[in-house]
Amino acid sequence: RSLKKLVIKNFKDRPKLSENYTEDTWLKLRGAVNAIQNSTSIKYNLEELYQAVENLCSYKVSPTLYKQLRQVCEDHVQAQIYLFREYPFTIISLDNLSFLKRMNRCWQDHCRQTIMIRSIFLFLDRTYVLQNSLLPSIWDTGLELFRTHIVSDTAVQKRTVDGILEQIERERNGETVDRSLLRSLLGMLSDLQVYKEAFEEKFLNETNRLYAAEGQRLMQERDVPEYLHHVARRLEEENDRIVSYLDQSTQKPLISCVEKQLLGEHMTAVLHKGLSTLLDENRVTELALLYQLFSKVKGGLPILLQFWREYIKSFGSEIVCTPEKDKDMVQELLDFKDKMDNVAHNCFAHNEGFINAMKEAFETFINKRPNKPAELIAKYVDSKLRAGNKEATEEELERILDKIMIIFRFIHGKDVFEAFYKKDLAKRLLVGKSASVDAEKSMLSKLKHECGAAFTSKLEGMFKDMELSKDIMIQFKQYMQNQSDPSNIELTVNILTMGYWPSYTPMEVHLPTEMVKLQEVFKLFYLGKHSGRKLQWQPTLGHAVLKAEFKEGKKEVQVSLFQTLVLLMFNEGEEFSIEEIRTASGIEEGELRRTLQSLACGKARVLNKTPRGKDVEDGDRFNFNMDFKHKLFRIKINQIQMKETVEEQVSTTERVFQDRQYQIDAAVVRIMKMRKTLSHNLLVSELYNQLKFPVKVINTFICYNLYYCIH
Q1: How far apart are CA 616 and CA 694, in angstroms?
Q2: CB-side exposure of 194: number of CA atoms within 13 Å?
Q3: Distance CA 392, CA 269 (A)
Q4: DSSP 8-state assignment for residue 641
Q5: Which of 206-215, 271-280, 474-483 bottoms out in mean pLDDT, i.e. has the lowest?
Q6: Predicted pLDDT at 657
Q7: Which residue range or ranges hold the Cullin family profile domain (predicted)?
Q8: Which of 577, 571, 563 lies closest to 611 in space, CA to CA?
Q9: Which residues on adjacent β-strands are paired with residue 545?
Q10: How many CB atoms lie within 10 A of CB 555?
Q11: Across the strands, what pairs with 556?
Q12: How far apart are the first and last CA of the chain?
């Protein structure tokens, strides 16, 4: 009706505007007005109204038409706000949801009306309004009027925004709300360009308040895994709200707010409370979630990195610095390294910073206890490369050696490893206890690649000696075949270059006449081929196979040379005291006690001891055990040779320290010859740079004396 009145009013004003118009135009406009007034069909109404507007615009009354259209629309919108203000008691009694629904209906009706008006006045919108850039379009005019007279009303806006916030809070508390209603109303605020000032600021403040309180409460009530899953769920919910009804511009501040209140304010507390537990229990899922969440917060990853590094140092230090764990130290280190590698790669997204921090932490804690880790790693390698190790296939053994090399890289005192590795390698080679030559050479290759050729030159020399010894023994057997009086003992000799092998304390023992004679034959043979060389017999790692007769039958017994000397005595007598055995064999007392213990107190007791007991004491007497039984024909009793004595361990360590002292002395001389004059602090710094093992400052005072003497 208002549109019809507007067209008629312009027609009635025609005399003022029609002086220059032709009669045909006048008749056309009058016919259009009559057609609008008599219209009965909606379709024709719209078409006639559109035609009437076009006719009016043709009469150049567009400014007046636009002005009066705006006035009609404004009157209509003002009438709507009066409906909200006319019944204040009713509005107050309405719950917020009903108020929101009423507001939404008002907005939807306004949008539909504005679209219809724009359709009818489309000719006006696309001609007059389009040609005047300062004038808003009919649609923009409708939005402006609704914003000015309804949404900008203080009471209406507050009630609307408070109602929306109440619905969002209910949804956050687990209740079901009408998302389409919220989407429509927030779209209204966005279309009216009041979303940020009217809603977003209050919404973010409420979000801050809610999650600040929730974070404080849940940190007290829940453990860390539960809390992390709760934070992830909250972030997922807020992202879903953005997709469902919030404006996209709210996403960044909203998510930042949630992350700050639930994570940023509690990062240290979360890590203090739960990181150690997550790592101890290997909670891979929660660790990955922790990394994912902390990566979203400013400063999250650096603090996680710091706690990760400290955890590794603390846990590793407990493994390394607890003497009671020495037996399983290396295996625990390997397991711990595997575990941390898995966390770094699968939970921390292969982050280079975390991987480097892990390496730094391992290097720090593994060197807190000097020398011992290097010694135990060498012994662990020995246990894996020794014959009889059925724990792993060749492929598994290769993987184990690769893992050991990773731990080996962290050690500063690699000379300790070298000394113990060389000692154990010598035993494996000389006693024939090496599981695989290929595995031995593979380990040697790894060490050479890691530490250089100088580190492995002596180890490689040991293998060369063994290969040369095989060739020499082939020649010796041929030599023995040509002798007029061949021996019934088969002798195998390993010729060792003294500089390559560990040093062994010379020990003079009383060998049987047949053995002494055979030694002299070999000496004559060898020196005949290599004049100028000197042979020194070393009985410590010698071994033999003896044929023995028991009541059960004949057996072969594989024993050490010292065990051989003891057992051969029982060909001459039935019972001997420890003192008699010592005198007859010439074996050093400590070594003799270990030898007798292995023969009379071990699993294969070929000797009987009187009185019985686990230890060999003065006054004990020994006799041959004719009742000895064993399921195997060849029995190995010489495992005692592979066991390290306390004296061996101390001797190896002392040699390492002595070699270090020589290296320190040499380094000081080199530095001072080059620098001439140098302060103490700079000299120590230069020593740290040149030496490959940790050096204590106290050692340098000895070096000064050495330098002064040379100078």
Answers
A1: 42
A2: 19
A3: 44
A4: G
A5: 474-483
A6: 66
A7: 372-600
A8: 577
A9: 558
A10: 19
A11: 547, 634
A12: 120
Q: Do residues 149 and 78 touch, judged by C-beta distance below 8 A? A: yes
- 117 neighbors 42 (Cβ within 8 angstroms): no
Report d(CA 128, CA 114) in Å as an integer: 18
Residues in CB range of 186: below 8 A, 6 or more apart: 164, 195, 199, 245, 246, 247
pLDDT at res. 710: 39
List, for residues 407-440, the tens digit of each pLDDT value.
999 988 888 888 888 888 988 888 888 878 888 8
Q: At residue 67, what are phi and psi to the nearest 5 degrees?
A: -65, -45
The percent of residues above 70 in pLDDT, for the chain, comes to 84
Tokens read off for 457: 């030159």
Record the pTM: 0.77
Q: Please state the three-class secondary structure of 390-419 as a single string.
A: CCCCHHHHHHHHHHHHHHHHCCCCHHHHHH
pLDDT digits (tens, 9 = 90+) for 572-624: 888 888 888 888 888 888 888 888 888 888 788 888 888 887 888 888 888 88
Q: Under a CB-based contact definition with an 8 Å cutoff, are residues 55 and 28 in contact?
A: yes
Minimal CA–CA distance to 416: which of 374, 448, 370, 460? 374
Beta carbons of 467 and 499 less than 8 angstroms apart: no
**Pairs from 275-282 (Cβ < 8 Å, separation ≥ 24):** 275/224, 275/304, 275/307, 275/308, 275/311, 276/311, 277/223, 277/224, 278/224, 278/225, 279/311, 279/315, 279/339, 279/343, 282/339, 282/342, 282/343
Two tokens, residue 628: 């000895």
Task: Determine the length of the chain.
Answer: 711
CA Rg value for the chain = 49
- Characterize the bridge pairing of strands 621-624 and 575-577: antiparallel
Lowest mean pLDDT among 300-309, 335-344, 630-639: 630-639
Q: Which residue do the tokens 């180890």 mark?
A: 459
Preceding amide of 611 cis, omega within 30: yes
Strand pairing partners for 548?
555
Residue 336, number of CB atoms within 10 A of its CB: 16
- pLDDT(711) > 50: no
CB atoms within 10 A of CB 399: 12
Token pair listed for 677: 């004059």
The CB density around residue 401, as the number of other CB atoms within 10 Å, is 20
Write down the mean pLDDT value for the chain.
82
CA angle in degrees (0–180, nearest 5) for 435-437-438: 110
For residue 391, the number of C-alpha atoms closer than 13 Å in the C-beta half-sphere is 9
Q: State the Cα torsion 403-404-406-410 to the nearest 10°.
A: 150
Which of 25-39, 57-71, 245-259, 533-547 is the least confident region? 25-39
Q: For the chain, give the percent of residues with pLDDT over 90.
A: 34
Q: In angstroms, rounded to a whole number, what is the distance separating the alpha carbons of residues 558 and 326?
A: 31
CB atoms within 10 A of CB 683: 20
Q: Is the dihedral of CA 207, 212, 213, 215 positive or negative?
A: positive
